[in-house]
Amino acid sequence: MTTVLLAISLLVRGGAADRVPAVIVFGDSTADTGNNNFIQTLLRGNYTPYGRDFAGGVATGRFSNGRLAVDYVSQALGLPPVVPAYLDPGHSIHRLGSGVSFASAGSGLDDITAQIFSAVTLTQQIEHFKEYKEKLARAKGDAAASHAIARSLYLLSVGATDLLANYLLFPIRRYRFTLPEYEEYLVGAAEAAVRAIYGLGARRVRIPGLPPLGCLPLQRTVNPARPGDCNKWHNMVARSFNRRLRAMVWRLNRDLPEARVVYVDQYRLLGDMIAKPWVYGFENSVRGCCGTGYVETGVLCSLDNALTCEDADKYVFFDAVHPSERAYKIIANAIVHAASHGLK
């Protein structure tokens, strides 16, 4: 739930040999740049008002009024300003060579989460990465492809859908796991995913922690204890999960030679934007821009198009779940600065 241009010189000053050749993305709707447009699922953002501030006002499938954090990260690294979707048949391997997103809205660390929403599971995303690596080798040669894979920056933006849709709001996994057990299960899945892409050549991995889930506009609206206020329990769950995630990142850096896995504290940053929006130039951090701003996300945004705000830059959230393009840009800046350590 991440973002940027200020860090370009810091990240590329080491010369051509040190530059990141591609940004490679796994995750959910916070990182899906259009993959769900090409699968059978209801979770799509390829209609207005999504994309209204994108170049040309095109709804690309991104759950945002414009670009996502991953797009801004790419631009900050001197790469194209947008990260293409892997499943888009209009992109050749040469276009995908400088960046690719395998993410799918509705996906999670738990493959059952993705299956609920008919999204691409994280397991399938990693299989797509394997295919991508093979295509890259055929296009560039084994040595050049391996070099690019090793020096690319990998982003894993996932986990919120598991806890919200698969446990806290709907008790699908609650019948099998206690909450601490499910958190541990999810972190284990994240670790397995990183180890899997490491086995395929990835070395530089950035993992944003969960945002304050209880402060999403939708979660405020459905808060049974204090409607309109942040759900303190859901925020506590996000913080608990993030602590486990930090420990996992430390473990991976210890166990995997040459791996540089970095945790990005998205909770603190987005929480600060929500608590003090004026500091970041926002006017509203309680409602989303689209519709009433309280419950609309996905297709519901298109039903209330006439109510959508005039200037999304004034809002931390574009819909009731996802940040606005401007908030994503700030999140991307945090990712870039975290990624600046050890990129040479």
From TrEMBL:
Cited Gene3D superfamilies: SGNH hydrolase (3.40.50.1110)
SUPFAM superfamilies: SGNH hydrolase
Lineage top rank: taxon: Eukaryota
Sorted UniProt keywords: Signal
Alphabetical list of Pfam families matching this protein: Lipase_GDSL (PF00657)
Signal peptide: 1-17
UniProt key word Mitochondrion: no
InterPro entries, A to Z: GDSL (IPR001087), GDSL_lipolytic_enzyme (IPR050592), SGNH_hydro_sf (IPR036514), SGNH_plant_lipase-like (IPR035669)
GO molecular function, one term: hydrolase activity, acting on ester bonds
Record-linked PANTHER family: GDSL ESTERASE/LIPASE EXL3 (PTHR45642), OS09G0247600 PROTEIN (PTHR45642:SF26)
Family of the protein in this entry: Belongs to the 'GDSL' lipolytic enzyme family.
Record protein name field: GDSL esterase/lipase
